[in-house]
Design brief:
With about 220 residues, the protein is mainly alpha-helical. It folds into two domains: about 15-75, Homeodomain-like (Arc Repressor Mutant, subunit A, Orthogonal Bundle); about 90-215, Tetracycline Repressor, domain 2. The protein has helices at about 25-55, 60-65, 70-75, 80-105, 115-130, 130-140, 145-165, 175-195, 200-215. α1 packs across α4, α1 (about 25-55) packs across α6 (about 130-140) and α4 packs across α5 (about 115-130). The longest helix is centred in the first third of the chain and has 29 residues, at about 25-55. It is elongated. GO terms for molecular function: DNA-binding transcription factor activity; transcription cis-regulatory region binding. It holds the Pfam family TetR_N. Keywords: DNA-binding, Transcription, Transcription regulation. This is HTH tetR-type domain-containing protein.
């Protein structure tokens, strides 16, 4: 779960069992669905964090949310759906955050690829700190079947986006490796932020990592 993303909206919207999304529903109904989904995700995060994905029980998630188990299945289809929805929520928030930062920097006239990349990295790390509980959960090995492959797929996509942001020619192996290393540095730092004692320590890590990225982003020669 690392990398800088240029634009949001890459994930599909959550679907109801009949294939209908929130669009087209009466406003009150759509709002109620959002409330139910939010309660279920909050409860799922609590239970997954305390017990791990494997040992988490749907009945406990439903009880903590105050939502019936049947409604849980209706909205998410079960435990795997809840976990993937949490991951998508984290991913989309990180995308929005980094995209907004890049847009702000460009509006100020910043056009240097490295400066933009480091600004986006800083925004991503800010999000990792702000959402550290969810971030810690999502880097654990205890997840649903197939999640690791899905995460690797998105990591590769993020590396490609970072390459475009840095204006690196992906056809050159050296360029691909450099961007992959940079993306890995950001991901590792995000994991470290999850274990920070307080914001002061987190800020120290963010500043240190941004300095490292400036150094490593410079093209060779």
């Amino acid at each position: 779960m690392s990398g800088i993303v240029e634009s949001a909206g890459t994930g599909a919207a959550h679907q109801l069992p009949d294939g209908q999304g929130g669009m087209g529903l009466p406003e009150g109904h759509a709002g109620q669905n959002r409330t139910v989904r939010s309660a279920l995700l909050d409860a799922a995060l609590e239970v997954f964090t305390e017990r791990g994905y494997t040992d988490a029980g749907l009945s406990e998630i439903a009880a903590r949310s105050g939502i019936a188990v049947g409604s849980l299945f209706q909205h998410y289809g079960g435990k795997r759906g809840l976990y993937l929805a949490l991951w998508e929520e984290f991913r989309e928030e990180q995308e929005r955050r980094t995209a907004a930062t890049l847009a702000s920097e460009r509006s100020r006239g910043v056009d240097d690829p490295i400066a933009l990349f480091v600004a986006g990295a800083g925004a991503y790390l800010e999000g990792a700190w702000d959402n550290r509980r969810l971030g810690r959960l999502l880097v654990e090995d205890d997840g649903p079947a197939g999640f690791d492959a899905l995460r690797r797929q998105w990591d590769r996509a993020w590396v490609r986006r970072n390459a475009r942001l840095l204006e690196v020619d992906e056809r050159r192996r050296a360029g691909r490796v450099r961007v992959s290393v940079l993306t890995t540095v950001i991901g590792g730092a995000a994991r470290e932020l999850g274990d920070c004692r307080d914001e002061t320590e987190a800020r120290e890590i963010m500043d240190e990592v941004c300095g490292i990225l400036i150094h490593l982003s410079a093209p060779p020669g």
